[in-house]
Amino acid sequence: MSTDRLVIFDTTLRDGEQSPGASMTKAEKIRIAKMLEKMRVDVIEAGFAIASQGDFESVRAVAEAVKDSTVCSLARAADADIDRAGEALAPAAAGRIHTFIATSPIHMKYKLQMQPDQVIERAVRSVKRARNLVADVEFSLEDASRSEHEFMCRIIEAVIDAGATTINLPDTVGYGEPLEYGLMFSRLITAVPNADKAIFSTHCHNDLGLAVANSLSAVRHGARQVECTINGLGERAGNASLEEIVMAMRTRKDVLNVDTRIDATHIVPTSRLVASVTGFPVQPNKAIVGANAFAHESGIHQDGVLKHRETYEIMRAEDVGWNSNKLVLGKHSGRAAVKSRFDELGISFESQEVFNEAFVRFKTLADKKHEIFDEDLQALVSDVRESLSSHQFQFETLEVLCKTGQVPNAKVSVIVDGELKRAEAEGSGAVDATFKAIEKIACSDTELQLYSVNAITQGTEAQGEVTVRLSKQGFIVNGTGADTDIVIASAKAYIDALNLLAEDKHKEHPQREGV
Ligand SMILES: CC(=O)SCCNC(=O)CCNC(=O)[C@H](O)C(C)(C)COP(=O)(O)OP(=O)(O)OC[C@H]1O[C@@H](n2cnc3c(N)ncnc32)[C@H](O)[C@@H]1OP(=O)(O)O
Ligand SMILES: CC(C)C(=O)C(=O)O
Question: Does residue 81's CB lie within 6 angstroms of at least one atom of ligand 2?
Fold first, then answer.
């Protein structure tokens, strides 16, 4: 039964939970299952009912909670497993029993210790037993990618005759290579006489990083169900990731030619929920759901995206549940992106020269700091404007020596009315020594009333914004300065305050301020 509708079978709650350390409580499974249902996943594999009482109850609870997706339980090809799965699924609006047995020579000989004919017999018996409990039965040939073609033909034909409606050919150990794995599907679909009575399904593991590639190849060769997990969670290196499969189907429909019924806008919220429940964070460069999946940092890319988004984007961030794409400002950014962010912040420049100066300072800051935030840009612009306006005092350089057991020493140079002046002073700390050195130059006779530091953004590389309040003859001013080095920010703030005191318009009377 070949159709252009692709069934999305999510196994986050079963194979995903097989990731060491990822086990989930019943309540967590219900929350995730409800999200998967909202996303319009076709089949939710909720667990392996016989594995434990907890898993049985989780399958049952998901079967009770979910109405719009089929709920499934795994079961070995064993009577007790099948009966337990049937019992757990009893409340389901639509329930599926997924029974499996290994078909590769190595698994049959060493693990099952069964002859191939016994394996077929057990498979048929299990499918029939499952069909007595539910109408929807999936049969998996575990380790199919290492199984022999003739044997698979025999067992598939037999289980379809016994009532299996889905035939899954898993790449259990992630051994498959895309073309070879795909061809296994087309050859079996052609060779098995009753193949048209079942949907063929793929279930791939990521041991060689090929799980998604192998799944897509299977679809190109006739598979019409893909088994996958949110964030690619799963045994060992994980399973094919649902988000990548769904978005590949949508983005490359031209070659894959299938539709899913998934509402992709729930992908990112579901990915976040799974990451928080399991404690497995999503790597930033993970496709679709990683923090950088729709972020551009390079100037050339940012310029392209600003001119026409599709130059560097094959999907829309909004379509998978992000608020928007992101232009991250950093040392690789160019003028176009920086200008665009200034525009968004409502900052305009009086001349190209002022913008050029801001851009030069942006690059200097970006060499010191990984990411430049809006607050950094705002501080940078006021710094630029300060330096371009003609003030009495202009900060030039600062050299500070702080060593355990020695008195801190600062050497400062400041341009005063166009003339470069230098001074050196000692103090109780780096900032104190700096202020004393500036005072030697300015001779301002002011009183320091307040000194405060705030990090403009987060992290140790953040810019610090310093406020210095000076008073003189009953007038008070607040000077500010920002820099990734807080001693330099302090020097800038002190000099800003000196300039404000020198300009009448900025002075405040302390009584009026209530200070
Ligand atoms: C490829 C996959 O991901 S398959 C799913 C893997 N997931 C899990 O195993 C998680 C849940 N598993 C469990 O909780 C336990 O393993 C249980 C409850 C299923 C079984 O526990 P136990 O009875 O203690 O058996 P144990 O795990 O030690 O060994 C597995 C047994 O199942 C047999 N077996 C394995 N697969 C199948 C199968 N598909 N059909 C029938 N029997 C099977 C093995 O041959 C072995 O039998 P043996 O004890 O006669 O040698
Ligand atoms: C039970 C099957 C589908 C499985 O998980 C695998 O083969 O990896």
Answer: no
Residue nearest (by alpha carbon) to ligand 1 atom 48: 112
CA nearest ligand 1 atom 47, residue: 112
Residues 381 and 395 in one domain: no
For ligand 2, whether the C-beta of 225 sits within 6 Å is: no
Q: What pLDDT, on the 0 to 100 scale, is given for residue 388?
A: 77
With a 6 Å cutoff on the Cβ, whether 235 touches ligand 1 is yes
Q: Which amino acid is at 459?
A: G
- Quick one: tokens of 337? 């992106």
The DSSP call for residue 465 is E
Mark which of 366, 385, 404 sits at the end of a domain.
Answer: 385
DSSP state at residue 503: S
Residue with CA nearest ligand 1 atom 34: 112
Question: What's the confidence (pLDDT) of residue 390?
Answer: 79
Listed residue (169, 181, 182, 254) closest to 221, CA to CA: 182
Q: How far is the CA of 81 from the centre of ligand 1 (A)?
A: 10
In a 10 Å sphere around its CB, with 0-12 CB exposed, 13-18 middle and 19+ buried, how is residue 512 labelled? exposed
- Calculate how far, in angstroms, residue 102's C-alpha sits from the geometric centre of ligand 1: 11
Answer yes or no: is the C-beta of 299 below 6 A from any ligand 2 atom. no
| Boundary residue ending a domain (385, 405, 432) | 385
Per-residue confidence (pLDDT) for residue 512, from 0 to 100: 37
Q: Can you give the pLDDT at residue 1?
A: 44
196-212 burial, b for 16+ CB within 10 Å, e for fewer? eebbbbbbbbbbeebbb
- Residue 39: which domain range? 7-278
Q: Which residues contact 316 (CB under 8 A, 6 or more apart)?
A: 309, 325
- Closest ligand relative to 172 C-alpha: 2
> Distance between CA atoms of 161 and 194, rounded to whole angstroms?
8
Residues of the chain with pLDDT under 50: 1-3, 511-515
Please identify, by atom number, the ligand 1 atom nearest to the C-alpha of residue 99.
39
- Rounded distance, CA 441 to CA 410, Å? 13
| Pair (260, 196) in one structural domain | yes
Give me the pLDDT at residue 84, please: 98
Q: How far apart are CA 494 and CA 469, in angstroms?
A: 8
Query: What spacing in Å lies between the alpha carbon of 88 and ligand 1's midpoint?
Result: 18
Distance from the CA of 175 to the center of ligand 2, in angstroms? 13
Going from the Cα of 34 to the center of ligand 1, the distance in angstroms, rounded, reads 29
Its sign, for the CA torsion 500, 506, 507, 509, is negative
Ligand nearest to the CA of 229: 2
CATH of the domain at 509: 3.30.160.270
